[in-house]
Amino acid sequence: MEKFLEALRGLLADGDGVALATVVARSGSAPRDAGARMLVGRSGRLWGTVGGGLVEHEAELLAMETLRSGTSALREFCLRAEGLERIGMVCGGDVTLAVQYLPGGAAGPLAATDAALRCLRAGGDGWLVSRLSTAEAGDLSFLEKEAAEIRFSALRQQAADEVLFEAEGKPWFAQRLIRSGAVYLFGGGHVARELAPLLARLDFCFMVLDDRAEFAVPADFPGAKGVLCADFGHILDAVAPGSGDYAVVMTRGHLFDLEVQKQLLTTPVGYIGVMGSRKKKEFVFERLREAGFSDRALSRIVTPVGLPLGGETPAEIALSVAAQLVQLRAERKGRVWKREEGENMR
After folding, report:
1. What is the rounded CA–CA span in Å between residue 23 and residue 31?
2. What gap in Å lies between CA 34 and CA 165, rounded to an integer?
3. Both 292 and 262 in a single domain?
4. Where are the transmembrane segments (predicted)?
5. Measuring CA to CA, which residue among 191, 185, 195 is closest to residue 312?
6. How many Cα atoms within 13 Å fall on the side-chain side of residue 67?
7. Is 121 found in the same domain as 204?
8. Which end of the chain is more exposed for a tag (fewer CB within 10 A), N or C?
9. Where do the DSSP E strands lie in 93-245?
């Protein structure tokens, strides 16, 4: 979300009009879920994707038309067998796509992106709201949670992060500003350095902690929100992982891992992944039991960390860790991978 807002703000500030394409509804196994966005300028696609293939091609053509007309559009795409001749894709679902024309330098959208970025970076709660009128330029606004729920009853006690609804006689689309849980990397060694660019590319907010100054160099971790040199025996003096966050422990030794895990188990952090072998796990778990932690508490720890891809190099291990974090994030958003059918399903 932050990257999208930064890209949109930059384009609007440059003064050129931009077309914002958004998947506002999805059924079945369409390529992208509601909330997927793409920015299109007069030269073509500038940022993001709404699913690729012919749907995205059609979306670009529609975006070009909105840039010429100065109006917006709302269109449904059928990706089922009966829609094959029209769109050329059979994914077994349907997509509703909104394409909004946002004039360059427009005060409303610029103010909305600024407010949304401030809220997101401060860890606040709010909604980015679009009025999906097709006869005029697009509308984009940001409302903090309380204000949004006062104005739109559809957003009160809303569990979904993306909502297509009707209000004031028109269709609207709202997307909650939720920063994906932060990832805390404890240890700045070879695997962490391979993992950092993957996390940045996958839109995770992450921080790196190491107790050695030469391993806590910001330049080595592109995209990190923070790189700290901190005592592993007192990590909670430096960070405060919450229930929506992820902790990945990959320090330089068993005893440092042990100290970090002792402290993490006293926090509500939602995921604790630890790099290491079965022998290392047995050693650390025995010491944790001696420190008073129950088997139930130890069940919170995932070790070895990452999906079992079979890799051994730092880059391969980093890939397995990143894959597991993506899987966990998808599960939190209600997505499930159906292996037998080879498709992403909600």
Report:
1. 10
2. 13
3. yes
4. none
5. 191
6. 20
7. no
8. C
9. 93-102, 126-131, 139-144, 162-167, 170-176, 183-186, 206-210, 226-229
The pLDDT tens digits of the residues spanning 187-245 come to 999 999 999 999 999 989 899 999 999 999 999 998 898 999 999 999 999 999 988 89
| Residue 99: strand pairing partners | 21, 73
In angstroms, the CA 269 to CA 253 distance is: 22
**Domain for residue 154, yes or no?**
yes
pLDDT at position 50 is 87
Dihedral sign for Cα atoms in the order 312, 316, 318, 323: negative
pTM of the entire structure? 0.69
Query: In which domain, by residue range, is 228 found?
Result: 183-332
Q: Which regions in the chain score pLDDT beneath 50?
A: 81-91, 336-346
The whole-angstrom separation of Cα 124 and Cα 121 is 8
| Cα–Cα distance, 302 to 270 (Å, whole number) | 11
Decide which of 155, 178, 201 is a domain's last residue.
178
How far apart CA 224 and CA 196 sit, in angstroms, is 7
User: Is the domain of 157 the same as that of 275?
Assistant: no
Contact 274, 302 (CB under 8 A): yes
Cα–Cα distances (Å) from 323 to 198, 327, 331, in that order, read 10, 6, 12
| CA distance linking residue 180 with residue 39, whole number of Å | 21
Q: Are residues 301 and 272 in contact, defined by beta-carbon separation less than 8 angstroms?
A: yes
Domain count, the chain: 2
DSSP character at residue 135? S
In this prediction, residue 245 carries a pLDDT of 93
Contacts of 201 (CB under 8 A, 6+ apart): 223
Rg of the chain (C-alpha set): 23
> Measured between alpha carbons, how far is 304 from 275 in angstroms, rounded to an integer?
5
The two beta strands, 126-131 and 139-144, are antiparallel
* End position of a domain, from candidates 127, 156, 178: 178
Tokens of 344: 């992403």
Residue 300 structure tokens: 């919170």
Residue 5 shares a structural domain with residue 34: yes
Same domain, 173 and 206: no
Pairing of β 226-229 and β 246-249: unpaired
